[in-house]
Write a structure and sequence with these properties.
The complex is a heterotrimer. By secondary structure, chain A is an alpha/beta fold. Chain A has ten helices and 13 strands. A six-stranded mixed beta sheet of chain A has the order 5-6-7-3-8-9, sandwiched between helices. The model of chain A has no long low-confidence stretch (mean pLDDT 90). Chain B is globular and about 50 Å long. Helices cover 74% and strands 0% of the residues of chain B. By secondary structure, chain B is an all-alpha fold. Chain B has one domain. The radius of gyration of chain C is 18 Å and the shape is globular. Chains in contact: A-B, A-C.
Amino acid sequence: MTECAIEAVALRKSFKRHEALCGLNLNVPRGSVFGFLGRNGAGKTTTIRILMGLAKADQGEARIFGIAPGDDDSGALLRRRIGFVPEDKELYPYMTVEEVIRFSRPFFPHWRDDLERRYLKAFDLPPKKKIPELSKGMRSKLMLLLATARGSELLILDEPTDGLDPVVAEEVLRELIVLSSSDGTTIFFSSHQLAEVEQVADRITIIDQGRSIISGELEDLKQQYQRIKVVFADGIPADIRWAQGADRIRNEGRMVSILSGRNSDEIMAQARALPGTSVDTYPVTLRELFLELMRAD
Amino acid sequence: MLWKKGWYETRIRLLFVLAAVVVITVLTLDPAPAAAGSGPLVGATTIPAMLAAILLAGAGVKTQLGGLQRSKGLHGSMYYTLSLPVTRTRLFNVRVSLGLAEIAAIQVLTYSAILLVHPAGVHPAGINVALSDLFKHGVAAFLCVTAVYSLGVFFAAFLDDVYQHWATIFTVVGTIVILSRVPLPASMDAFLVLSLASPLNTHTMPWNAMAVLLGLSGMLLLIALKIVRSLEY
Amino acid sequence: MIIHVNPASGIPIYIQLMEQVKHAIETGALRAGEQLPPLRRLAEELVINPNTVVRAYRELEHEGIVEVRHGAGAFVRQRAAGQTLVSRKAQSIMQSAVERLAAAGLEEDAIRRLLENELAQLKEGLIRRRT
């Protein structure tokens, strides 16, 4: 029983003229709810495609439960344990809700009838309706049903609440929490909805230009990063050199704004030791952290 | 099950093609005496069947396994298919087997239709055609159509639906033209097999030609499978 | 017990939970021996990660405020009730200090800054004493 649900080491992938992944590392422990964040084009979808065996990395290794995803028999067996909801939540246009469920069931020996029934009821999915006639929210919920009722140990979700209204999004998130807490299902999801990630994720990775730039437990990162604002009554001294760990330093008028990732205490002490300063610290939200990290590039 | 899904996706095309083939066959078999040889019979049975093969080949090898087609919403669903715990090889095999079964069904039904319409002696000119010869012809024709189907599958692995059709037709017509200029030994020439060298005339199985067709089909299908397995999304 | 958290406030959720539990104990909404909301139910209700609740309860146990009984849940400790006595005293000290500063003409932000500076000095003083 490996501790790691997903492990990626130094993944590289290029398309014709574009290097999508430049040495990406990923470590998703079993049972975690893992938020995979990044701008559009940062490499999130490429990474997910590689994890699902839809594409192959040029270099590096990816493993799910210790097994390499791919088009061989072991890769096929691996997919019994993974539920996938892609960005385009589309299914077979000629099937109804219950037909696609009936079609899918025989592939999975560990199909969970209880989850199937639970979601049909909780999501209010009309069994006899044809899939193209479902609303976007319904289709997302149906895909979630198909991904979880197969008895998966890991869910890979690409923008699960994309295009959903807040009520439906909350329903989906709640079901993910329930899955995580009652079944220990590992949930790996990419999202632009930073507020939602902040709510449900316990670990995150932020990816930019094909590389992971920050990684770790969300609560730790939020405690670690502080915004320190120093106001100099007589103007900012020109020769000031801030202690190590002071990032994203911005000078504006008489105020210096510092985003510190470690030893915030040291920086604050340094600031207070300077003459004529007034020092305040503010906690940093995930959104601020994300924007700040992107800004420097 | 994959078979049922494949059936769902091809059955409309199949029914349409089947109806067309049967109707064309019966209509083109005119009861008036024709030239010697079984030309009309052969033409009537083979050409529509080949058209059927081309259409069926397109219907789904690519769309089932994904690819460049963005029409009809089948494109998005391919992610779901590929997330199923089956290898692409199995998806391919089921699809191709189903296609071949459908072709065989078309053949059988066509010949049955002919026998129904002209029960007393098959050939309209009154020349009796032995059922065993008809059977041999049918098998040879089936292999010929299989070769065309394999060609269609091959093209479908990397071309869009429409282009695949044209590419296949073009290749088949091109082959006929080339073969008419560059003669092969009669036993190997697949197309001769269906006309002058047909078992209906020779009363023997054209083993060489059949071997060639079988080999060709196998090769085309294997290459198509390789291509499909290497596709990335 | 009604708990709510603001995931986007920048303050780690588990700290928010801890604060709310402590506040509930201080105001008497939660009494000694009473059970905290069950872990999974709270996570599902608030739609937050269960590990966050685990961490909050664990930290509260570490601070001696609750006792986690395996399989049964988290319960408010007897001592915690005693601690509220200290907090009530502390509350009255703080109340009079703020009143006096406000009477001296200081605004809310000024008072806060003064307090934070003093806390920082306290922390540094402690650090210096240790090293």
